Each structure stands twice: as structure tokens, then as C-alpha cells.
Amino acid sequence: MDPVIAISGLSKTYEDGYEALKSVDLTIGKGEIFALLGPNGAGKTTLISILCGLVKPTGGSATVGGYDIVHDYRKTRSMIGLVPQELTTDQFETVFATTSFSRGLFGRPAKPDYIDQVLTDLSLIDRRDNKIMTLSGGMKRRVMIAKALAHEPTVLFLDEPSAGVDVELRKGMWDVVRRLRDSGVTIILTTHYIEEAEEMADRIGVISKGELMLAEEKHALMAKLGRKTLTIQLQEPLEALPDQLGKDGLELAEDGTALVYEYDTRSERTGIGALIADLNRADIRVKDLDTKQSSLEEIFVRLVREGQ
């Protein structure tokens, strides 16, 4: 299946010499939720802005639905819905009017039933006739999403969509995004909420200093780069780690009641067998064992550090 978005060697250098993007290659398929993670200034917003036609690339190329983003700008832009980070909308318009107006900007005929359904999905229907200025920050964020969906795009960019949205409404928003994905809409999400990417994304990309470090299926990424932590609860607390255990890479918990051992799940030998044998030789009695897989946040932090 042809990708909905195909990016090849895309780069952006500003007049002051700052390289915001460095030869990015990426493809995204139809009906995929792709989460792009990276620290502030990593290039996430620049990449989205280029694909949406708001910023001109310095080099490389990109297509949306097979159309070039530069030469076929009108065609590609009509296929895209964008939810920017900034809350920019007419404060004196009603929720319904501003959403309908966004649809009209793309030359789409009036479709009030569709607009009402979008507002219902985003828990805004009871605010349909309220002016934007009367809404909370979280509601205004949802209005921005409604505006982006007004012209029925096939690709939706969400640039930090959950900023300022409380936990309950954020989960409701995730449900809306999943339904859009199930209907065939391709969704590209940037977020600083790691749990949002872990909960929603099919694939995850990590960008740092303008370079796309990787783009992997979520579960494959966690299996490939994830580490496990073995916590060994002790029957008797230790005041210090015995010298003969220092080579095992163990750490003693602050209260002395547990030993912590981190190991790579990809290694043929995890070292756990040798560790248990060393504990027996040191006459350290074990009460319980517990393992924990690294979270996506821990993997992300490690990747960014390695890229510095």
C-alpha cells in the first residue's frame, strides 16, 4: 500500500544558519497514528509546518496522498487538518459558527449535521452556541480540533493537542482520535505526554536536534530498546553492599531492604543466574523478586541522551 505521507531528505535551515531539520526520511501509512516525540526545539513543529505548507523546506521533498507539498499545495492542504499549539480563534464567534467557517474556507458545502457530530464527539455540543471567549482553555483546545476536522481531512496533525486539557477530557479526546483512525484518517501526533504516545500510537518516532533518530512500531521499539529492572526484596536489611557483589552491577536501596539490578532483555545472558548464585554464596536471603519493564518515557530519555 502506498504511504499517505512520504518524506525524503527533508531539511530546513533558517537565514541565521540554524538547522531545524536535517535530511529527514519518513513514510506514514493510511489509518496510522504516528507519534513524534522530542524535546523542545527538536524540530517537531518545523516538520509539521513544512508538511502543512506553512514553512518552506530548504531541501528534500514530501508528498501527501501522492501530491507534492510545494507544487500541489492547494491539493495537499485540502487533505490536511491541523491543530496547532497556539489557541488562535475569534473570541467573539460561537463554537458552531467558527467550526462551520473553517469548513467554508476549504470550499466545502455547508453540512451542519456533520459539524454537530464533530462537536458531539468532542463533548462540545452543549456549548454549540457559546462564544469562544466564555470557554475554558481545555474547551478552546477541543474547538481547535473541531475546526481542523470541519472539512473532513484524510490527514490530521495534532501538535501538542492535550496541552491545557485535564486528564478526563484527554482520555475522551484519545477515544475520538482512535475513532478517526478506525475511519481511515491518518494522524500525526506530537506530544510531551509520554503516556499519550504509549497509549495511542501505532508507531513512534524520536527526533532530536533536527534529526529523526528512529521510527519504530511501538511494541517493537519497547522490545528492542527496553530494559528490565529486577528488584530483590531481602529478608534482612543490609547496611552496605558486600564487596563480592559489587561486580554484579547491583545497587542497594536507601533503606537497605532491597537490591536493584538492571539488565538488557536483548542479551543472551542476563546475568540473573550468576547473581542469584552470588547472593547464596554471600549468605543473603531473598524474600521476593519483582521485575519491571522500562517505560516508553525511560526509553525516550535514554535515546535523547545518547543523541547529545
Count of structural domains: 2
Oligomer: single chain
Q: What gyration radius follows from the Cα positions, in whole Å? A: 24 Å
Order of adjacent strands in the largest pleated sheet: 6-7-8-3-9-10
CATH-defined fold name of the largest domain:
Rossmann fold
Number of strands: 14
**What is the CATH architecture term of the largest domain?**
3-Layer(aba) Sandwich
Query: CATH homologous superfamily name of the largest domain?
Result: P-loop containing nucleotide triphosphate hydrolases
Average pLDDT taken over every residue? 84
Unreliable spans: none
Largest sheet report: 6 strands, mixed
Query: What is the share of helical residues?
Result: 25-40%
Distance between the termini: 36 Å
**What is the succession of H and E elements?**
EEEHEEHEHHHEHEHEEHEEEHEH
- Would you tell me the structural class of the helices and strands? alpha/beta
Share of residues in strands: 25-35%
What is the CATH top level name of the largest domain?
Alpha Beta
What would the principal axes of the Cα set say about the shape?
elongated
Q: What's the number of helices?
A: 10
GO molecular function: ATP binding; ATP hydrolysis activity
Protein name: ABC transporter ATP-binding protein
Family: Belongs to the ABC transporter superfamily.
Organism: Pararhizobium mangrovi
